[in-house]
């Protein structure tokens, strides 16, 4: 079974940094894309960033480009999201998602709270 385990959320002041991790299992030999979505209270789920295995291609939403960096450890099937210059509007529940052979899998969320 595919499993995604996210960690690294927390509380930080505006301008601070956090690093999220998402460890995947159950799909070692697959070609996949892993990424992050977030959902703030009262708002719809929003794409944050994604990275394609082997293609070394990354994707970012306009709201985080230049502040967040996504990276992938292929050997560990683990995706990281380095978040710098955090803003209060980055406060949300962050979800890890993997697209494997055309199917989407989502892990549990990790909460990020940015205070002004």
Question: Could you walk me through the main structural features you see in this protein, from its secondary elements to its overall organization?
Answer:
This protein is mostly beta strands. 0% of the residues lie in helices and 60% in strands. It has strands spanning 3-7, 10-13, 18-25, 32-39, 46-52, 57-60, 68-73, 78-83, 92-100, 103-115. The strands form 2 sheets. It has a 6-stranded mixed β-sheet with strand order 2-10-9-4-5-6, with no helix packed on it. A hairpin with a 4-residue loop joins strand 7 (68-73) and strand 8. The chain is globular and about 45 Å long.
Distance between the termini: 40 Å
**What does the largest sheet look like?**
6 strands, mixed
Overall pLDDT confidence: 93
The number of distinct helices, counting runs of at least 4 residues, comes to 0
- Helix and strand run: EEEEEEEEEE
Quick summary:
By secondary structure, the protein is mainly β. The protein is built from no helices and 10 strands. The strands form 2 sheets. The protein has a 6-stranded mixed sheet, with no helix packed on it.
Task: Please give the structural blueprint.
Layout: E1 3-7, E2 10-13, E3 18-25, E4 32-39, E5 46-52, E6 57-60, E7 68-73, E8 78-83, E9 92-100, E10 103-115
Parallel strand pairs: 2-10
Antiparallel strand pairs: 1-3, 3-8, 4-5, 4-9, 5-6, 7-8, 9-10
Keywords:
six-stranded mixed sheet, mainly beta, four-stranded antiparallel sheet, 10 strands, 116 residues
